[in-house]
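For the sake of transparency, this paper describes our internal protein records without simplification. Such a record has a labelled line for the sequence and another for the backbone structure tokens. Nothing more is needed to write down the fold, since each code stands for a local backbone conformation. For reference, a complete record is included directly beneath this paragraph.
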Amino acid sequence: MKKLLILGAGTGGTIMANKMRKTLSREKWDITIIDQYKTHYYQPGFLFIPFGIYKAKDVVKPKSDFFPVGVNVIYSPIERIEAEKNQVLLDQGVVLKYDYLIIATGTKTAPEETPGLKGNLWHKSIFDFYTIEGATALAEHFKTWEGGKLVLNIAELPYKCPVAPLEFVFFADAFFTERGLRDKIDITYVTPLPGAFTKPRATKMLGELLDEKNINIIPDFNIAEVNNEEKKIVDYAGIEIPFDCLISIPTNMGDAMIERSGLGDELNFVHTDKHTLQSEKFDNIFIIGDAANVPTSKAGSVVHFMADIMEENLLCAIQGRPFTAHFDGHANCYIETGYGKGTLIDFNYDTEPLAGSFPFPGIGPFGLLKVTRMNHYGKLIFRWIYWHVLLKGKEMPIEAEMQMAGKKL
């Protein structure tokens, strides 16, 4: 019997376990998924926790709820991949052989990479919201905070969900306005990018929203350290920004196991063919989601689109056929803008966000590069879709390849 191993039981790994169990013969293929943690987090929901919209219980479920029958599950840390031997070493010396391997080990925040970030003020006046611990600690802090300088800083590219920091400051503007505190709070968005986002049209629109909401933006800021004593962040050029409450999007890194396996770049993201999703070094290894070093967003929508491509290309590899699927870097992101409204962007490697309707041309119901109440509802509805449709590998009415129909050039 042939063996497919899936490393990581987050979004990408769980989707692929469901897809491949339906696709591959149970008589011929043994599928095993490995992860050291038993809890699955709906990570887009972390954004809502500091503002009291979601509680921790709304974003947490057991991973076992989403594994299909007929897939072996091992909860264990992974020591390394020995790709030349087609085997994976778990801790305590357990060795698992494979014919094909899917790496879905994601990305993790690494606040220790920035000097001073995890100092005396960590989770007291300095917070992240990319972890359940950081988001819940910040929710408690905001309950009694009476104002001052609120600074959001992106430490380094790439990072998960590139629009989430913008959503955070938009939410903060609305949250403190509704509490009657907005005039006591100065909000500053500090980014290493030259503007609000990576794509020109979206950058223009989102930059205008920041200006409209009286949110300062400081671009081209590459943080060198956090000074806990004087409560300021300092970049390599010596620019200093004081804060009373600092929201950090720390450096994101791939799993340390990738470094031990010799398969990654300097941030432990796996060298991946950006179109086929196959390892650049080993033909029987495929990479999905945040673990890959492909030049598109590290976001849930990207994992969804990648999964469709990977299912087809993995079958091609197994059957000895040329690849027939092509990943174009497709990503789409709902962006909360506060006050029960949101916007939406849809783009890929080559095409920046355009105005139009999504997903159905001329019908929508969602508007691209428009601030609408329907886009906000789309973001909220997605939580149900994530738990009940996406993780289980079911079909969704959105093509993996970005469609130009309904977009305005």
